[in-house]
Specification:
The protein folds into 2 domains: 52 residues; 141 residues. By secondary structure, the chain is mainly alpha-helical. It has a two-stranded antiparallel sheet with strand order 1-2. 49% of the residues lie in helices and 3% in strands. The chain has 11 helices and 2 strands.
């Protein structure tokens, strides 16, 4: 038994010497392949000695595959951060609308003053009435025709007496009605004026404004000092001019009423 123990110690020493030789060989980079083969040949017998005499440096712990993989994936697969979107330019707020300044009201042109305002009956009947007077009731159409005669006389810048003469004449000829059906041959309109004697066309004579203008512009000069029947007869040339005088008083009142209503 003692012999066996001595044999084991010798074998251990021999193995130790071979191990030292192998380390020396490993330290030489030219013999690295041979040293690797020698280590493989030593096998298990070297392990006890190396464990006790020279502890091999501990290998660094292997990096956890799972950890390494997750880190690699985090760096390789994580999407690159998107560049920040450029800030939108803010549209400047519209300037507050300026309050509209009230435009000064333009003064309306004053209505022309009525040249006949305050006309008296003396002005409407400067020569006085002649003979007995007549009168008739007037409806709205007749008043309108009388107003057309008065307005026409004013537009012609005639005297108020000219309007009295024209209204009285129309009262005798048509009772201030606009005749659209011819009477006494071809007489038409407010004054029974005849197209055949040059007063105008039928359509013109049926226009109250035209008929009034045709009569008033035919009054003779000096009519203001003439009796009403004589002034009317010089225009109409009827069979009896005296008949016009009977309407003078009512005609004067009609003209005065229209003038006052017109302001």
């Amino acid at each position: 038994m003692f012999t066996n123990r001595v044999r084991e110690i010798r074998n251990t020493v021999a193995n130790h010497n071979r191990y030292r030789a192998i380390r020396k060989t490993i330290s030489n980079p030219h013999y690295y392949p041979a040293a690797a083969l020698a280590i493989a040949a030593v096998g298990v017998g070297v392990a006890p000695v190396t464990a006790s005499a020279h502890s091999a440096p501990a290998k660094p712990a292997a990096v956890s595959t799972a950890h390494a993989g997750s880190t690699a994936d985090a760096h390789s697969t994580a999407p690159a951060a998107k560049p920040a979107a450029p800030a939108k330019a803010q549209t400047p707020a519209p300037a507050p609308a300026k309050p509209e300044q009230a435009k000064p009201e333009q003064a309306k042109p004053a209505a022309p003053a009525n040249p006949w305002a305050g006309t008296s009956l003396t002005q409407l009947e400067p020569t006085g009435t002649v003979g007995g007077q007549s009168s008739i009731p007037l409806d709205s159409a007749q008043w309108q025709n009388a107003t057309t005669i008065v307005d026409t006389a004013q537009n012609l810048h005639l005297s108020p007496y000219a309007a009295t003469i024209a209204v009285a004449t129309s009262m005798q000829e048509s009772k201030l009605q606009n005749l659209t059906v011819a009477v006494d041959h071809d007489s038409l309109g407010l004054f029974q004026q005849r197209p055949s004697t040059g007063w105008g066309s039928p359509s013109e004579l049926e226009n109250p404004s035209y008929a009034a203008n045709a009569f008033l512009t035919s009054l003779p000069q000096g009519y203001q000092s003439m009796q009403l029947d004589n002034a009317a007869q010089s225009v109409q040339r009827s069979f009896d001019g005296y008949l016009y005088a009977q309407w003078q008083d009512q005609a004067a009142h009609v003209v005065q009423t229209i003038v006052n209503s017109n302001g």
